[in-house]
Amino acid sequence: MFGIADYGAFVAAIVVFLLIPGPGNLALVTSTGKGGMRGGLAATLGLIAGDQVLMWLAVAGVAALLAAYPAAFSAVQWLGAAYLAWLGFKMLVAKPGDAPILNIRPRQYFQQAMVITLLNPKAIVFYMAFFPLFVDPARHKGLVTFGAMAATIAVLTFAYGLAVTLLTHFLAERMRANPAIGRALEKIAGIFLIGFGIKLAISK
Q1: Which of 3, 34, 35, 47 could be joined to 141 by an S-S link, Cβ 3.0–4.6 Å?
Q2: Measured between alpha carbons, how far is 2 from 99 in angstroms, rounded to an integer?
Q3: Does position 121 have pLDDT exceeding 50, yes or no?
Q4: Does residue 161 belong to any structural domain of this protein?
């Protein structure tokens, strides 16, 4: 289909990739908890934008460049780890009444989620190594094939992001009466972000 080897397996792989706990999922949950539906949807669009950038960079040959120069990938990995740890630290030290780590304005949620995606080595590795496995060299149709893959990823990510946003918003509405719960969840999110940063830094 469109030069994609085993389209069904490709869709399944994307779904599994979305379900794996990571910074992107945490960005969705945190954005929705802070900014409601608008924040969650803006973060979803940010994740989609980041995914599209990574995919088309891989198409343009960036994957080959990073493979030839491991130091380049290592630099991206450390940059992403430091960024996530910095966000987590800000969440941990935030005090009641402080400005939120993720601003309520949807534009900033979009930027936050996109940057997290672009600096997430897990996503970079997926597009560098896993994504090319689904390109059928015999039936490849150039931009048509890549466009179909990009559209599939965007649609699946939007559907997943919408589901996570709705669920998080539903739960958040029932916790607004107790601000202490929200502060505790922010601290927990901070710990997870620092943990993601450390894990990315030490991963090979």
Answers
A1: 3
A2: 48
A3: yes
A4: yes
